Prior knowledge:
- By secondary structure, the protein is an alpha+beta fold.
- It has helices at 29-54, 138-149, and strands at residues 10-11, 19-20, 61-65, 70-76, 91-97, 113-114, 121-122.
Amino acid sequence: MNKYKEEGPKLCAKGCGFFGTPANHDLCSKCYNDYLKQKLTNSAASIVDSEEKLTPNSSSKGTTNTANGTTLITANSNNDESSSSTNADDDIVKVIKRNRCESCKKRVGLLGFGCSRCGGLYCGTHRYPEEHSCPFDFKESGRADLAHKNPLCKGDKLGTRA
């Protein structure tokens, strides 16, 4: 018998019947993609869990906008609110990449303009606040800036003081 056995391709570690590769942790391409998605949702769930710890009044469904232009949508699959412990398997997390204009729903790709006041993503036509009907109150912000920069100056009402 030959003690060095020639090894052929290995089957997928999940047992789906396809062949796996060592570069993909002995998983086939479909199982490896599922593995990566599970890893991504676990990291997104940890982000959502850390934000829920910061805000005690969180509901069972919610959306979270992140700085890199993605939206995390979480929905708790169990409807029993009396259970104090929630497992990671009970939470459904979807990561949605925003790449459409919020006014006209046109695909913006890499050229999307983010509004610094309302946080929306817009195309070249709707990039200005007056074009996309920005809900930011410019008058109130201008009044607050003027009140801060120009303090009220009153003269002394008594001309002579003792």
